[in-house]
Amino acid sequence: MKTIMQCVPNYSEGRNLDIVSKIAECFKGKEGVRLLDYSSDEDHNRSVFTIIGEPEKLRDAVIASCEVALNSIDLRNHKGQHPRMGAVDVIPFIPIKNCGIKDADDIAKQVGKYLGEVLNQPVYLYEKSAINPSRENLADVRRGEFEGLSDKMQKPGWEPDYGPPYPNPSGGATAVGARMPLVAFNVNLATDNLQIAKEIAKKVRHSNGGFRYIKAMGVMLEERNIAQVSMNVTDYTKTSLYRVFETIKMEAQHYGVGVVGSEIIGLAPMQALIDSAEYYLQIENFSPKQVLENRLLEGDE
């Protein structure tokens, strides 16, 4: 049986679609690799790709995409709502089938070593790959962003795991690591007041006493002139999407603001959406086996 791994690299480019297309070409038509999805956001000025494949072939395709991105993206001219420290900002590897977190960690470190030693891109290992416990949390690694990277790297304990001890002039630095699946889940508010989104993000994120598996921040969607609570749900089985969504609605009411919608960036596990459907439809005694597609897949096992 084939071993399947997933990678969800984030590139700091969401406006120049020619560059995004060049990155996408690194994953198209490659044996043992499949591009499942990619999306670009102009406000965040960021593109997120979802790729699956056999570990070594996936590794090689990701490295090729990094070469394109580092040759095409200059963070000295980059502005966007999403925090970033690198042209290739973060590269997580996720075990999917016939592999575990250790396998994902091995591939992550191979990619990190190549970026550092061959492409001259400083790399920090994060999440399950972190050698230094203070680097497990991506937000801590990325704090200060590209503009503060040079000063940060001179501080004791912030030398990169791979690559030179100074930022790539145009490419910054990259976080690479192994992690379990997460859901990128955003909630849009009926207001142009960014401070409201920031206050609500504080209420729901774990670092401020909110939900254990939520990372959140408030951002502005300039194109739509609305504020957004942008989140990563790092374990949807323990913190469900519907619970976070309902909490944000409640907190927004405190400010006299409504919710105009939500969005999922990239792909999400089907069970995360089934859990929400079950909650809102109040389905009694529901089983995932009642989902037609699940039963069809059973025959393909």
Would you mind describing this structure in some detail?
This protein is of the alpha+beta class. It has two domains: 4-178, 2-Layer Sandwich (Formiminotransferase-cyclodeaminase, Chain B, domain 1), CATH 3.30.990; 183-292, Alpha-Beta Plaits. Helices cover 33% and strands 24% of the residues. The chain contains nine helices and eleven strands. The protein has helices spanning 17-25, 55-72, 101-117, 138-142, 149-153, 194-204, 241-254, 270-281, 292-298, and strands at 4-7, 10-11, 33-41, 46-53, 88-97, 123-127, 174-178, 183-189, 214-221, 226-233, 259-265. Strands 1, 2, 3, 4, 5, 6 and 7 form a seven-stranded mixed β-sheet that branches. A hairpin with a 4-residue loop joins strand 3 and strand 4. Helix 1 (17-25) packs antiparallel against helix 2 (55-72), helix 2 packs parallel to helix 3 and helix 6 crosses helix 7 (241-254). The mean pLDDT is 94.
Would you tell me the overall average pLDDT?
Answer: 94
Head-to-tail CA distance between termini: 10 Å
For the biggest sheet, the summary is: 7 strands, mixed
Please name the CATH architecture of the largest domain: 2-Layer Sandwich
Task: Describe the secondary structure blueprint for this structure.
Blueprint: E1 4-7, E2 10-11, H1 17-25, E3 33-41, E4 46-53, H2 55-72, E5 88-97, H3 101-117, E6 123-127, H4 138-142, H5 149-153, E7 174-178, E8 183-189, H6 194-204, E9 214-221, E10 226-233, H7 241-254, E11 259-265, H8 270-281, H9 292-298
Parallel strand pairs: 5-7, 6-7
Antiparallel strand pairs: 1-4, 1-5, 2-4, 2-5, 3-4, 8-10, 8-11, 9-10
Helix pairs in contact: 1-2, 2-3, 6-7
